[in-house]
Design goal:
The chain is about 30% helix and about 25% strand. By secondary structure, the chain is of the alpha/beta class. It has a domain of about 120 residues: 2-Layer Sandwich (GMP Synthetase, Chain A, domain 3), CATH 3.30.300.30. The structure holds adenosine-5'-monophosphate-propyl ester.
Length: about 625
């Protein structure tokens, strides 16, 4: 696909995409391998919602990621893998090899009974086999549901259960920094409550002891020996489900965001190529875990669809020391580097001595994703990593959008620190006030919505379409509502101001306050809890938990430790509260609703500006909470 190469061209392409969206996207879709061309480009309404792109088109995304490239770039490296331990050899996998491994593992899935439409849960460390497992599912038309390896058994069980998965692909364990994560034993614990699971395929990675249940659990390395590497791709309808990925909401359990094959393929390729301005033979590195949407769209699918070389890193930015990212960039001559503001801030805090030993001269483009990047972090990234010569793309998007929506095009769109800048062609943002009235013109601040569909957007929430409608399409009629606040400045540039609902972005991870509360409430001594966010220098937002205990215990510190351990056990380490305050009551309205607005203000330190507290059942509670603030 020819990328946009000037700002003028961007403006023209944007205009065209708004005036003639169907012609615009049809032209982008033509470069792919389709078994049958679509009959109709688009059908949509946001009221049900019903969104379909490339109707009647038949294809398989893995043919486009792999087979399509074999002739021209079969021997080019598709995946560079860098291990957690810098002394372990890295791996380079060519497109030809990846094709063969994906086909082989696809046959393993088939020989174990998996077929088109089945849901398969993947719970793995960041090793090449994770990408192989994802693509093998897509090869046979099975729907993958990747669960981040940092989630605990309870979160895993919820996700396996919701998607009714019959198979789980995992590893004995995973290496992350100095820790070994026992993945298989977490799976064992989770599937005690998931009778649907019939097969568990286990990759050997850490060689830790695991219990293999006969008839159910199979070793990856043994299974691949039994099958060939010849596997034709299942023919999929453009609108068939490609994957489910769970994301937190303001209420209840996580939602299984559903993406479909054709539109997602076209959208991730177009956005990858244009935003990063990827050039042939460049090395591209996205540091996200495949357990998140960024890993799906911009570590696996987008780069492979574009025939790029994508780097996958098993470890963490601070192991063995805070120079690891920069060491890997020099080692593999990375040209494009895409990471999260929280990583940038934490490495900034470690000081420049970890950056200085490295040249970083291969870098051409830097990217940021997952949360607002503050101006200071942007400037640090620009000066010390990009050496003031690499454009920074601050990419705004969501699990639900499938791909980047608002972002500069590297080196083309003039940037401003802290701004995601302008919508990509095909993205039609509108800002509305709380009542849904559109805020036209520039210099306005409101809630970010989209008024027209794009090919990579969410199609449904798994097994519960009503929830999709309720969460995204009901707040404001005929608009997709993102849940984000946003400002459009005098130049028409967009700056995301953060979430306006009850989810918090902690180190770039989206966590529902309701989910954290229910994990806390698993502690037998906790009667009730309320979780809100508070500004955190490194994580962006931290977790502040107000908890009521059943019997007053003297050793509060011990109780706090137990609460933390409970959250770790039921949800995972990413959801551990940063601050816990034991309270005797929570601010509630007369109808019993917790007034989170007040708790938020207190946690943010704005205790003199609590607003109207007259509707509270017991205003005395607030005074006590303010006094005991941690
Ligand atoms: O609040 C926005 C924030 O991350 C949310 C989406 O989170 P998730 O579905 O986990 O996907 C993250 C990776 C795409 C958004 O609603 N967000 C994401 N990117 C940015 C951002 N906030 C500000 N600037 C960004 N570049």
């Amino acid at each position: 696909m020819k990328s946009i190469s000037t700002f003028e061209e961007y403006k023209k392409e944007y205009q065209f995409s708004v005036e003639q969206p169907e012609q615009f996207w049809e032209a982008k879709a033509e470069q792919f391998t389709w078994k049958k061309k679509w009959d109709k480009v688009l059908e949509w309404n946001f009221s049900e919602p019903n969104v379909k792109w490339f109707l009647g088109g038949k294809m398989n995304i893995t043919e486009n990621c792999l087979d399509r490239h074999l002739k021209e770039r079969g021997d080019q490296t598709a995946i560079i893998w860098e291990a957690n331990d810098p002394n372990e050899a890295s791996k380079k996998i060519t497109y030809k090899e990846l094709h063969s491994e994906v086909c082989r593992f696809a046959n393993v899935l088939k020989s174990n009974g998996a077929k088109k439409g089945d849901r398969i849960c993947i719970y793995m460390p960041m090793v090449p086999e994770l990408a192989i497992a994802v693509l093998a599912c897509a090869r046979i038309g099975a729907i993958h549901s990747v669960v981040f390896g940092g989630f605990s058994f309870n979160s895993l069980a919820d996700r396996i259960h919701d998607a009714d998965c019959h198979m789980v692909i995992t590893a004995d364990g995973g290496f992350r920094g100095a820790k070994d994560i026992p993945l298989k034993s977490v799976v064992d614990e989770a599937i005690k409550t998931c009778p649907s699971v019939q097969k568990v395929i286990v990759l050997k990675r850490t060689k830790c002891d695991v219990i293999m249940q006969a008839g159910r659990d199979l070793w990856w390395h043994e299974e691949v020996k039994k099958v060939s590497d010849d596997c034709s791709a299942e023919i999929m309808d453009a609108e068939d489900m490609l994957f489910i990925l769970y994301t937190s909401g303001s209420t209840g359990k996580p939602k299984g965001v559903v993406h479909s094959c054709g539109g997602y393929m076209v959208y991730t390729t177009y956005t990858f190529e244009n935003v990063f301005q990827y050039k042939n033979n460049e090395v591209y590195w996205c540091t996200a875990d495949v357990g998140w949407i960024t890993g799906h769209s911009y570590l696996v699918y987008g780069p492979l669809l574009a025939g790029a070389t994508t780097l996958m890193f098993e470890g963490i930015p601070t192991y063995p020391d805070a120079g690891r990212f920069w060491q890997v960039i020099d080692k593999h001559k990375v040209n494009i580097f895409y990471t999260a503001p929280t990583a940038i801030r934490s490495l900034e805090a470690m000081g420049l001595n970890f950056v200085k030993p490295y040249k970083l001269d291969s870098l051409r483009v830097l990217g940021s994703v997952g949360e607002p990047i503050n101006v200071e972090a942007w400037n640090w990234y620009n000066a010390n990593i990009g050496k003031n010569r690499c454009p920074i793309v601050d990419t705004w998007w969501q699990t639900e959008t499938g791909g980047i929506m608002i972002s500069p095009l590297a080196g083309i769109t003039p940037t401003k620190p802290g701004f995601a800048t302008l919508p990509l062609p095909g993205a039609q943002p509108v800002l509305v006030d709380e009542k849904g009235i559109e805020l036209k013109g520039n210099n306005v601040e409101g809630r970010l919505c989209f008024e027209f569909p794009w090919p990579g957007m969410i199609r449904s929430t798994y097994n519960n379409h009503a929830r999709c409608k309720e969460a995204y399409f009901s707040t404001y009629a005929n608009l997709y509502f993102t849940g984000d606040g946003c400002r459009r400045d005098e130049d028409g540039y967009y700056r995301i101001t953060g979430r306006v609902d009850d989810v918090i972005k902690v180190s770039g991870h989206l966590l529902g306050t309701a989910e954290i509360e229910s994990a806390i409430n698993e502690h037998p001594d906790i009667v009730e809890s309320a979780v809100v966010g508070f500004p955190h220098d490194i994580k962006g937002w931290g977790i502040y938990a107000y908890v009521i205990q059943e019997h007053s215990r003297k050793d509060v510190e011990e109780l706090k430790k137990e609460i933390t351990a409970t959250v770790n056990k039921f949800m995972g380490a990413i959801a551990k509260p940063d601050k816990i305050q034991i309270v005797s009551g929570l601010p509630k309205t007369r109808s019993g609703k917790i007034m989170r607005r007040i708790l938020r203000k207190i946690s943010e330190g704005e205790v003199n500006n609590l607003g109207d507290t007259s509707t509270l059942l017991d205003p005395g509670v607030v005074e006590e909470i303010v006094k005991g603030k941690v």
